[in-house]
Every structure is written in structure tokens, then in C-alpha cells.
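[job 4471] stage=fold_predict status=RUNNING
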Amino acid sequence: MLIQLLFLISGFFIPSSCHPSATPDYKSSVTPDDISGLHIIRPLPIGLNECSGLTMLTKSLFVALNDGGHKAILYVFDANKNTEARKVYVDNAVNADWEEVTTDGEYVYIGDTGNNGGTRQNLTIYKIKKDDVIKKDHVTAEKIVYKYQDQTSFHDSNRHNFDCEALVAVGDSLYLFSKDRGDLRTNIYSVPKMPGAYQAGKLSSFDSKGLVTGADYRSGTAGPELILIGYELKNHSYHPFLVHFTNFTGTHFFNGKSARITLSEEHQTESVLFYSDHKVYISNESSKNEKGYLFELDIL
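[job 4471] inference complete, writing C-alpha cells
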């Protein structure tokens, strides 16, 4: 997809609008496109107390991060072994509110995109060479900074639509999925993968009926797929859900078929990634009442 950029006096660019080992069972309550159950793969490594982003570097090597209030550290670990994680320090980054990590064939992207009160004007995506994350303990990042083109108010609010915890890399662009406390929908925004400063225009919207906290994309022989994860808040408890999108063209994610999956367990689900043809991996944040785990879920 080609993105045309216009230079503004403010120093921001605007991309043109485009669409872009045994484990216990966890019971689940799902839609007719049912799943087989949720399984614990392993506890999350020590240090990942508030895991808010997770992706794969290789088939068994994962990278994860904590959300805001922690140091600018990536945690690299083996999903199939209960070994501890290797810490990778991002020397020129700050963890204001890290909420997502995604990758393409060459780079890892960290979404410092958390915006709980809707007041931030320093939203940043850090771009790091994937090979550096695999091999080095200290790395440096390029920066992609952005603002939402349709955000006109930056007053502190708990009912705004400009938080974001979900990010995927497709083609030459990064796609952000908002966490809307105002209307419980999710909106798609896009920025180029190139370092720079941008205004992100809204491309599309979907009624997620809850707060979206993670995303993953893949392109396979059966066609492209997108999966979102999030939760509904009911009686001060987290009620997780996923939405699986298929049969769409290009990056018109919301124009295809969608299937909603709801889980009966009360987890603060923060991350999701495709693992095999029919499986996804899920992580949750640890809290006073629950530990953080890497889960496996059969979605077909």
C-alpha cells in the first residue's frame, strides 16, 4: 500500500486515508464457532508482573513487555521451557505506557500507546531490529511518533476513545486498534513504518462491545486473518473475549467475517498471537488474585 505524506508546518506528516508438560483445562463459553478449551503453557517469567504485550521472534522464542511504570526492558524467553527470560534494555526509550509489541520479518515494534486519561501528546512506537533483540542485551530504537487526527480535546477523562493497546504490522504500515472507554468500540488508525512524526487518521470502526487490549495478524494460504482480544468489565471483574476476522481483502479488516469468542474465566487478558493453524497464545496480567500465564487456545 502506498502512503502519501504531506508536510505540515507543525512538523507532523499526515498519511493519506486508506483501508488498509501436561496442563489443566480451563472451561470456556463460546459462540457456535466453538473452541476446545484454554490450556496453561507456562507461567510468565519472573519480572513480567504486568505483561501487556507479547509476540514471537521464532517458533519457540517469545518477546514480551510490561506496561507503564516499569523500565524500558523487553523480556525474551522460550515458550516451551520454564526458564527465566533474558532482559533486553532499550537504551534510548522510556516506558511511559508500553501496551503492545508486534513484529514483521525484520523489525520489532513497541507500542508506547497507552493513553488512559486521553491527555498524552507524546504517543510513540519504537522500532528495533529483530536480529538485535534476539542477539543483544542492549539495543537502540528508531521512533515513530503520532497524534490522532480526530482528537481535539486532551482533558483528562475516563470516557474517551483515544487509548490504544493493540498494534499490528502489515505491509508498509502499522495499524492501531483503539481501546474505547467512551463507546466500547474499536477504531483503526494507521501510520507508516518509517521513523517520523505523523497524524493518524481513522480508517474504520467495529463494535467490539468491550475494551480491546491486543491484536495479531497473519497472512496464510487460507487468506489473511486478524484476531483481537480484550475484556468487558462487569461487577469490577474482567470477562475476556476475542474477535476473529477472516475473509477480508487487504487491510479491510472489518469488512470480512467475524466470530466472537467469550471465555468464562476472569482474566485481565492483554495479549494474543497466532501460533499455528488453529491455535492462538494468550497472556494475562498478574494481579493480587491471579498469576500471569501463557495460555493456548484452539479457535477452530
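[job 4471] summary: Residues 231 and 240 are 4 Å apart (CA to CA).
[job 4471] exit 0
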